[in-house]
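Quick one, probably user error.
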């Protein structure tokens, strides 16, 4: 088994889960911290001199790294440096993505000169999946079923105009560079002029937005407009609201993780809110309990078809809505293997990644 080198954050759940699986499987893993690499490129290059597998984990659990990337992005965008943001604050997402792009391009250039290093997920494809709109457009261009896209949204007025154009009363507005339901708004209206924005983005009195682990429902027109405008200012797009199948008192979508292009772990996420992300206290359910055989087939076929769009990425999480024998991809996530304790063939996602069939 080749040794592994991981670029990550030592205190994150992802890194801790991967290191725990390494101890159980006997895999050799060396960790390089994001902050260490950003300060000294040789800190990573020196670890990649021998044949190995290289996994990039997200930098988001390190606040200092987050702001470093934001300010790299600000410089590239011609903006003044940003003051540090508070924990959970939704701000400067477009600048962060610009800085993250610089980091991914640096890694891609470095790996191009190191053919002996096997990247678990290629930096260019990580970047493509982190830009959620670009990702969905790539999937659509390869005939992978997704939610119908309305495209980029500038502000509240633009969102309403797009909904009027499509004769829609319900849409999801999504942060272009967000993750884990951060900056997602489930927006609905009726013919009487009433409207509701359900979101984990909490509006503070000073006008800032914070991502919290509970849903807020805004119904006042001025608050709805303000929340939508703040999310759009950092980059956002809209898509049609796909109805999720019901089970018991809730509804569900599914997370499927592919390894080497093949589906392995899959879990239904059952909840009563518009967003069913597991960190929002949705229930984990075995898909065998909620999916008919034809739906199971559609889930696997669609996830594997979507994985083929990113041929140089071996570990991808897909969120899907599956009903009546058809599956649609809601999102692809290059860091979508965080499913603590959820087993497939007796292994969690990180132990599976160390297996022989995890790489194409």
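Nope, works fine. Designed sequence:
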């Amino acid at each position: 088994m080749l040794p592994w080198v991981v670029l990550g954050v030592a205190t994150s759940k992802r890194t801790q889960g991967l290191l725990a699986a390494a101890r159980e499987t006997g895999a050799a893993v060396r960790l390089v911290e994001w902050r260490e690499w950003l300060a000294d490129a040789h800190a990573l290059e020196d670890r990649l001199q021998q044949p190995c597998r290289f996994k990039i984990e997200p930098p988001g659990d390190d606040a200092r790294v987050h702001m470093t990337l934001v300010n790299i992005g600000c410089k590239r965008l011609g903006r003044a440096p940003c003051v540090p943001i508070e924990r959970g604050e939704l701000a400067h997402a477009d600048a962060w993505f610009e800085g993250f792009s610089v980091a991914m391009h640096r890694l891609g250039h470095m790996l191009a000169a190191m053919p002996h290093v096997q990247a678990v997920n290629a930096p260019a494809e990580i970047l493509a999946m982190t830009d959620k709109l670009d990702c969905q457009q790539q999937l659509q261009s390869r005939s992978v079923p997704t939610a119908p896209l309305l495209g980029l949204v500038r502000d509240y007025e633009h969102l309403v105009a797009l909904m009027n154009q499509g004769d829609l009363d319900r849409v999801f507005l999504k942060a272009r560079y967000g993750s884990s339901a951060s900056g997602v708004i489930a927006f609905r209206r009726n013919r009487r002029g009433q409207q509701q924005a359900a979101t984990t983005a909490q509006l503070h009195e000073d006008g800032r937005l914070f991502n919290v682990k509970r849903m807020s429902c805004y119904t006042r027109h001025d608050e709805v407009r303000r929340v939508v405008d703040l999310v759009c200012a950092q980059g956002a797009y809209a898509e049609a609201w796909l109805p999720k199948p019901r089970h018991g008192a809730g509804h569900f979508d599914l997370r499927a993780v592919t390894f080497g292009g093949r589906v392995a772990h899959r879990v239904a996420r059952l909840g009563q809110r518009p967003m069913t992300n597991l960190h929002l206290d949705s229930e984990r359910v075995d898909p065998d309990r909620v999916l008919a055989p034809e739906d199971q087939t559609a889930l696997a076929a669609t996830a594997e078809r979507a994985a083929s769009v990113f041929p140089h990425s071996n570990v991808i999480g897909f969120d899907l809505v599956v009903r009546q024998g058809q599956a649609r991809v809601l999102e692809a996530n290059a860091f979508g293997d965080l499913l603590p304790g959820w087993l497939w063939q007796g292994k969690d996602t990180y132990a599976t990644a160390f297996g022989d069939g995890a790489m194409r």
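The two ends are 15 Å apart (CA to CA).
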